[in-house]
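Try this one yourself first.
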């Protein structure tokens, strides 16, 4: 089976995602608020990872869509909260005004809350069998709580930042959700041992992703990022570049490619992850 290009996936996935938003049982006004950030686009990297692995495991598309939409909703809800004046105070997201700039802080807070909670409903009503969906929800609960803890650490830990401290925050803030993306399709196949291994590999991919994001934050313009650059430095937030220079940071990503990607036990998915990671270095 040929690997699905990310751009082709994004177009198809956005159709399912926006359809899901349109079916949420709330008033039209609130639904418009909930859909605002999604309509601004996004990489859709997390659901893409889920889809590629589901394809290799021959899982039905409904499972890939359900897990992917759940993850993208949660991720977007966390970004909406990140952008609030009390946290990152960022007026730009995905090249457009952040949700709180478009609709106000009160509605942005409520929309973020909704999008953090709603994914459980999506997972529970998916076609994943009842005995397996419990394991998925258990992993989801651990993952979502870890991400929020990571956000707390990101806001509260003050400099100086050691490499271990930055890595711990990156693991929780970014790595855990990628871990879910790597592991949840495996749990749908009832292979808990392989799922545990993939969970850890996904976490390591997430750390590599966050290191690359920290480099971009220092290098690119708001046009290239789709958000305000230099926020980490301005707010004295933990960044890989607090603990190492850019050459060392890129070397860490290269080490992930060299040492951890070969451990992925699925050939096509391994190739996909390697391609995605090399793109992180090039950006």
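Now uncover the answer:
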């Amino acid at each position: 089976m040929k690997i699905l290009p990310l751009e082709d996936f994004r177009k198809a996935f956005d159709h399912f995602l926006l359809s899901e938003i349109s079916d949420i049982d709330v008033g039209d006004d609130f639904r418009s608020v909930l859909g605002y950030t999604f309509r601004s686009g996004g990489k859709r990297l997390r659901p893409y990872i889920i889809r590629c692995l589901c394809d290799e495991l021959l899982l039905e598309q409904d499972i890939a869509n359900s897990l992917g939409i759940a993850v993208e909703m949660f991720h977007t809800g966390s970004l909406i909260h990140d952008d609030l004046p009390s946290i990152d105070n960022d007026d730009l997201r995905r090249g457009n005004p952040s949700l709180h700039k478009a609709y106000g802080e009160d509605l942005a807070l409520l929309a973020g809350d909704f999008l953090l909670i709603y994914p459980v409903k999506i997972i529970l009503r998916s076609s994943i069998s009842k005995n397996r969906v419990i394991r998925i929800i258990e992993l989801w609960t651990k993952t979502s709580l870890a991400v929020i803890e990571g956000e707390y650490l990101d806001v509260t830990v003050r400099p100086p930042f050691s490499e271990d401290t930055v890595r711990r925050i990156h693991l929780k803030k970014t790595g855990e959700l990628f871990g879910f993306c790597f592991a949840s399709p495996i749990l749908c196949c009832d292979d808990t041992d392989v799922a545990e291994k993939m969970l850890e590999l996904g976490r390591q991919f997430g750390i590599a992703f966050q290191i690359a994001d920290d480099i971009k934050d220092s290098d690119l313009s708001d046009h290239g990022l789709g958000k305000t650059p230099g926020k980490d430095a301005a707010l004295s937030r933990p960044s890989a570049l607090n603990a190492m220079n850019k050459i060392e940071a890129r070397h860490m990503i290269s080490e992930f490619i060299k040492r951890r990607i070969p451990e992925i036990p699925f050939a096509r998915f391994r190739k996909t992850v390697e391609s995605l990671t090399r793109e992180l270095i090039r950006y």
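Discussion: The mean pLDDT is 93. The longest helix spans residues 192-219.
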